[in-house]
Every structure is written in structure tokens, then in C-alpha cells.
Specification:
There is one protein chain. By secondary structure, the chain is an alpha+beta fold. 21% of the residues lie in helices and 37% in strands. It is built from three helices and ten strands. The strands form two sheets. Strands 3, 4, 5, 6, 7, 8, 9 and 10 form an eight-stranded antiparallel beta sheet that branches. It has a two-stranded antiparallel ribbon with strand order 1-2. It is globular and about 50 Å long. The protein starts with 5 loop residues before the first strand and ends with a helix.
Length: 171
């Protein structure tokens, strides 16, 4: 999921009264990666508006995604991570579907035949802490079900399973 246009919300202190006021900036590419790395290095959280369909339906275009530093929890099977792709250096938000020897097999939930490959831990930037859609928190995909989602995604069963469940609901 190459996030092309991102809005970063930075809480800036007002000169009078010490109140916080959100500021929104539109950035992308290497500037986005550098800013995210800098914010997370200070144990902050980074919020942005997602674009793309590689993590649908869990993350959809227009969703607000909150990323936390890797220090705030273990990265393992099913964790949705932000990473700098080793080829090209662009930002990707995808799910860990395999772990071996300090590397992570990472794949988008909606990419049936392609993974991002085995990504070294040094390329990981942060982990998805929260997804907000239309002002409401999205819970599916971050709880214990993440293990099943990762398993089905790795073996390319997630998309056919979603289609079968959708067909059952239409009956």
C-alpha cells in the first residue's frame, strides 16, 4: 500500500494559554517516512489519512491510521506495521504473516498473490495502534483475530473466504 498523499496532524502548543491546536500538513514519499521516523523516535504517535486498497477492508482510503513506536509492544504474527520498503524506500502499511530469524514476511490483506517479501526488522518503523473510520474506531483486525487473518492471508485464503462470507450474508 504505497500511501501517496498523507495528512499528518501535529499538536502545536499555542503561544497563549498553553493550549494544543492540531495542524494538518500534506506530505508524501521520503518526507513522510522521515517525519514518521522522527516522531516515533520520540515515542510519539503519528496519525495520517490512508489511501489505497491493499489492506481493504481493514484499512480503507480515508481512514485515520494511528502509528505508535515499536517500543510500545512486540511485533509478531498478525501485527499491522508501517515499514520502509527495502526497494524504493516508500512507506507501506501491511500485516505480518510470518516471522523467522529477525525478518518478517509482510503482506497486504487485499493482495491475493503477492507479499512484500521477507523484510528485515531494521526496515520497520512502527505498528498500527488504531484505525478510525467516519469518527468511529475500527476494531476488527487488531485483536486476537489478527492471528487468523495473518494465517488466511499468508496462504492466499483470505480473499476467497471474504467472498464466501459475503455470499452467505446476501442469502
Amino acid at each position: 500500500n504505497n500511501l501517496q498523499k498523507i495528512c499528518y496532524t501535529n499538536m502545536q502548543e499555542r503561544a497563549q494559554g498553553g493550549l494544543l491546536e492540531p495542524q494538518t500538513y500534506s506530505i508524501s514519499g521520503s518526507d513522510l517516512v522521515a517525519l514518521m521516523e522522527a516522531v516515533l523516535a520520540k515515542n510519539g504517535t503519528f496519525r495520517f489519512t490512508a489511501s489505497g486498497s491493499s489492506m481493504a477492508p481493514f484499512i480503507q482510503t480515508g481512514d485515520m491510521v494511528t502509528i505508535s513506536s515499536l517500543h510500545k509492544g512486540r511485533v509478531g504474527l498478525g501485527t499491522v506495521v508501517a515499514f520502509k520498503h527495502p526497494v524504493g524506500g516508500h512507506l507501506v502499511i501491511h500485516r505480518v504473516v510470518g516471522v523467522a530469524h529477525g525478518t518478517f514476511l509482510i503482506k497486504g490483506d487485499n493482495t491475493p498473490h503477492r507479499s512484500d517479501g521477507w523484510i528485515p526488522s531494521g526496515c520497520l518503523i512502527g505498528r498500527v495502534l488504531e484505525i478510525t473510520r467516519n469518527g468511529r474506531r475500527v476494531w476488527l483486525g487488531l485483536g486476537v483475530e489478527r492471528y487468523l487473518i495473518a494465517f488466511f492471508s499468508r496462504w492466499q485464503w483470505l480473499i476467497p473466504l471474504r467472498g464466501a462470507l459475503a455470499a452467505l450474508r446476501r442469502r
